[in-house]
Amino acid sequence: MERKRFYTKRRLRQTIEGYLFISPWIIGFVLFTAGPIVASFVLSFFSWSLIRPPRLVWFDNYVVMFTRDPLFWQSLRVTMVYVVVAVPLQLLFALFLAILLNQKVRLIPFFRTLFYLPSQVSSVAMAVIFLWIYHPELGLVNDLLRLIGVQGPAWLISPQWALPALIGMSLWTVGGSMIILLAGLQDIPQHLYEAAALDGAGELAKFRYVTLPMLSPVIFFILVLGIIAGFQYFAQAYVMTRGGPLNATLFYALYLYLNAFNFLKMGYAAALAWILLLIIMAVTILQLRLARYWVYYEFEETRR
Amino acid sequence: MSDKSNSYLKNMLGDGMATHPRIEQGVQFLSSSKRRREFLKRTVSYFLLSSLGLLMSLPFLWMLSTALKPDALVFSIPPEWFPRPWVWRNFIDSLTLLGHPVHLYVFNTVLIAVLGVLGVALSSSLVAFGFARLDFPGRNLLFLLVLSTMMLPRIVTIVPQFILFQKIGWLDTFKPLIVPYWFGAPFHIFLLRQFFLSIPKELDDAARVDGASSFQIYWRIVLPLSRPALATVAIFAFTYHWNDLLEPLIFLSSQHNWTLALFLASFQGYMQQPRWNLLMAASTILTLPVLVLFFFAQRLFIGGITVTGIKG
Question: How far is Cα B259 from Cα B253, in angstroms, rounded to an integer?
């Protein structure tokens, strides 16, 4: 009896203390995350330019978005193209680099640093550097192309080449994924390769039947984050093209920003934010569903 | 390795057999072809690593080369690879000649980054301690919520945040860029929690027997043992604040409040033919601190990313 009371008292104490410790996050979550998400939802039913008082328009923002706003569809298209093309490309490149770094050669720390560093450079600095590199006449890219006798396109001022230019540039930021993949590669037990070799597996078979399955949880993680990052793509487009030319690089996040802070359509921007939230949730749930078919978890039964 | 396998074979086959010239030849052929393949593989690896390394660093070498060029050389077609002469003054000129008080922007950026780092490290470690070392109902559910907010794009919440900060008169001050981070950030909470979990819980129990409160355990035992994790959080947070464009762009307006990233972003596109050498010098100034930080704390960077990637 005594003991039980002591126990519950201690438990109560821990509960109070626990909530005290995490209270900064709870307060912050309510003020800066949950609150804004709810406010965003309410706001999405209003028309509000910050100057005049908000006016209730019910579903108008959503109706306009889906039926009368070609720029909404354009921004969705641009973002989708980026996600579908750039994210897999980044993954392949990061995987390639990680496999190279997983060889038993010297100077690995040096190369690892070299490949990782660009991902830590400010995206604004990257944008300005690549603005210069993609310069139609004075830029490095077209200079190198001239060396092999090719007349390069105008890159960022060409509607066809602006998006590919941004996608190409994104390969400089795969350092983080590369490090995660490298750690994943180093976690694969060596005996699996030895067993595969005994079964007569060549390098390719080892990659296909040992490396890829063992790496699949990491690849999954990188894909999920990569897709979300694609929907957040902002700074580079803002600095380099402002969505142009001819809206060829009008990314979703950029379009949302422009609506809120250039056109002062707060309600419309809030509706865009909500649709973005739904899209990301849908894509992530879809990925979790699909993961069952290709992500391999070792020791499935012991996972909590 | 191959010598060993040679002698191994010799032992296996016995002296008489191994000295048979054809078997000797075969053994040697085997090991030398293996060695040759190994050599070839290594050469290809080095070749790929070096050429990709060059490719990855090319933009930054080009940035440096442009930053050191005199005005006239910048516009030469075809572009010159090496500055002639090296104009180190460009770095000083970039602070004043672009028509902006760039030194002020540097100061603002440092101030925001330092205050943000302090706040996020303190608050996130408090929250992480709660999640890692204390047992209370709803803990796992709330932690799941922390993890899921990590996936939330900032752009989703930024419009109402803007309105909130406008209502309380915080626009065009540094507060919106700093204060929210004093309430913990999901990524850092996660990282610190993982680290705290690896500290033996017996330490807590022993301290409790001696009459220590939870806060004392946090402050006197767990935090001092977590210096590497805290340093990891600090460098990630610093890099984040130093590099960020979105928040300064939305919450700051007066020029004297600008950050470095905001300043560089103001040279949008090719609208105004800027002085590229000075702009590249300014880009170098924006890039350099993070690189220096990385060189001093390389292990922390790599360790931090690995934790989030694998144990997820």
Answer: 10
